[in-house]
What does this fold into?
Amino acid sequence: MSRHTLRAIVFAAVPFVLASCSSSGENLGASAGGGRGERAGGRGAGAPVPVVTAQAVRKAVPVTIPAVGTVEAISSVEIRSQITGQVTAVHFTEGREVRQGQPLFSLDPRPFQTALQQAQAVLARDTATLKNAEAAQARLETLFQRGLVSKDQYESQRASATALAATVDADKAAAETARLNLQYTEISAPITGRTGSLGTHVGDLVRANDATPLVVIVQLSPVYVAFSVPGRSLSEIRRYHAQSPLWVTATAPDASSPGAPQAAGAGGGSGTGGSNGAPAAAGARGRVTFIDNAVDVSTGTIRLKGTFPNADLQLWPGAFVQVTLDLTVQPDAVVVPATAVQTSQDGKYVYLVKPDRTVDLRVVSVERQQGSEVVVTEGLAPGDEVVTDGHLRLTPGAPVSVGAGAGAGSDTPPPAGRGR
It folds into this structure.
C-alpha cells in the first residue's frame, strides 16, 4: 500500500472517531444530570407540606335565613300649623329628642285673642236677647191661655225665641272655634321622638296646612326592621312562627370598614359571631311581628317586619342592616370551617389528616353553610382533623407539617407565611 493511500484512509476515519467521542460525552453528561435531578426530585417529594388544620366538632347550630333589611320608624309625624300666623318662639333645638306634650312653636296669639273676645261678646249679646224673648214668650203664653191675645201673636213670639236660641248656639260654636284657634297658637309634640331640621324660624309667617312642615318628629323607640326573604322559605317561617315567636337579629355595617359592603350572611347565625370577630350579641334583637299577605311576583320574595325595642338607639330609621332570622336550632350537627371544604368536578371534598401525618382525600356531603362554618352530613366524624389552608400543594398520601391553626368555628386567621 502506498504512502498516499494510507494517508487518505487516516483522514477519512478521523471524523467518525470524533463523532463517536462526542456522542459518548453527551450520553455520560445526560446520565449524570439525570441522576442529580432524580435525587433532587426525591428530596422535594419527601418534604412535608406545611398546612393549617382544624377538627370537626359536633354542636348545636342555629337554622337561620340571612337578609338585608331597612330600619323604619313606627311613627313619623309632620308638624304643621292649623292656623295662619307669625312664629314668635321656637322651644326646642333641631335634631334633639322631644317628649310628648313638650312645646315646640308659639305663634302670635293677639289676633286670636281679639277674635275670641269678639265671639264671646256676640254670644253675651245674643244670650241677653234670648232671655228677653223667652220672658216675653212666657207672658204671652199666660195671656193667650186667658184669651187676651191672639194665637198669631203668641206663635210669632215663640218663633222669635226659638230663632234666638239657635243664634245663641251658633255664637257658642263661634266662640269655641275662636278658643281653639287661640290654643293652636301653641304647638306641642304629639309623640316622643327626635326632631329633624327646622322648616321655619322666628318671624316667619306660617299658613294653615302649609305644604312644607315646620318640623318632622320620628319615633326611634321602638322601630321596625323590614326585610324580604325568598318565597320558598315561607312555609318554614309560618311553621316555626306558629310554634313560638321568631327572633330576628339586626346588625349595622361594620364601622371599622366604612363603605365596605358585607355579605348578607356574614354574621352567620344567631350567636355565632360577626365577620369582624365581634359577638352577635352586638346586634339588636327583636321579634317578627308582620308577615306580608302575598309573595312579590316580580322578585319572588315575601316581606317581613321585626319590632325592636331600640332602647340604646342602635338602629336608625332609613339605615340598611344585616338581618338574621332565627328559625330553630339543629342539635348534634357536625361542622368544620368553610375553608376546609373544596370543590371539584366530582363534588365537595376535604383533605383528612391521618394519624401518620399524611393526608387522604375524603368526599363529603354539605348540607348548608352557617357563617364561617359548614354543616357536613356525610364523610366526617367529630374529631376528624381536616386541612383548612395549604391545599394547593397537597395530593393524596402526601406528608404534612401541621402549624398552629384555628379550631372549627373560630375566626382566627392562619399564621402569616404558612400553608402556601
In short: The domain at 79-218 is CATH 2.40.50.100 (OB fold (Dihydrolipoamide Acetyltransferase, E2P)). The helical segments are 3-46, 110-146, 151-183, 234-243. The first strand starts at residue 49 and ends at 55. The chain has four helices and 22 strands.
